[in-house]
Automatic annotation (TrEMBL):
Gene3D superfamilies attached to this UniProt entry: MFS general substrate transporter like domains (1.20.1250.20)
Cellular compartment(s): Membrane
Name of the protein in its database record: Major facilitator superfamily (MFS) profile domain-containing protein
Organism whose genome encodes this protein: Tegillarca granosa (Malaysian cockle)
Membrane topology of this protein: Multi-pass membrane protein
Superkingdom as given in the UniProt entry: Eukaryota
UniProt keyword Glycoprotein, yes or no: no
Transmembrane segments: 22-45, 57-76, 88-107, 113-144
Listed InterPro entries: MFS, MFS_trans_sf, MFS_Vesicular_Transporter
Major site of localization recorded for this protein: membrane
Record key words, sorted: Membrane, Transmembrane, Transmembrane helix, Transport
């Protein structure tokens, strides 16, 4: 048997230290809350956007810009995570992501038309940058804390 499969077989959550368990639980909770926040828009935003005069196509693009931003920025963050620092990247990404999620929730109070559309695109783009930062940093932190069990 090779070294990797032995490490995976030997991994047990019972043998992990309390601090590492708390780290895993915190990261899982953070990831769950963030993804819940991202997916919570789907039932409500299209109706709100149509009240503001936004077409369904543009509404789809507003949803899509978030994922495109993550796709484009994650490799850049991955390259610079060691220079920026994983902890700083995680915390700042989470703060940007959370702040933009709150801001996106109050955009319906803004003006209709083009200004609303631009604000939505800006907000979702910044939210995608924050999400990409904290997810990249989260994987780096977990890989650092569990070097023998990265695949697990």
């Amino acid at each position: 048997m090779d070294e990797m499969s032995t490490a995976i077989k030997d991994f047990s959550i019972k043998r992990v230290s309390k601090n590492k368990k708390l780290l895993l639980m915190g990261m899982a909770c953070m990831n769950f809350c963030a993804t819940t926040c991202f997916s919570l828009l789907a039932p409500f935003f299209p109706g709100e956007a149509s009240f503001k005069g936004v077409s369904q196509t543009v509404t789809g693009l507003i949803f899509g810009i978030f994922e495109i931003t993550i796709f484009a920025s994650a490799p850049v963050y991955g390259k610079y995570v060691s220079r920026i620092g994983a902890k700083f990247m995680f915390i700042s990404g989470a703060m940007v992501c959370g702040g933009c999620a709150i801001l996106f929730g109050v955009l319906n109070k803004g003006p209709d038309g083009t200004i609303f559309i631009v604000m939505c695109f800006l907000c979702r783009t910044l939210e995608g940058l924050g999400c990409s930062a904290y997810v990249t940093a989260m994987f780096a932190i977990i890989a650092y804390e569990f070097p023998a069990n990265v695949a697990t």
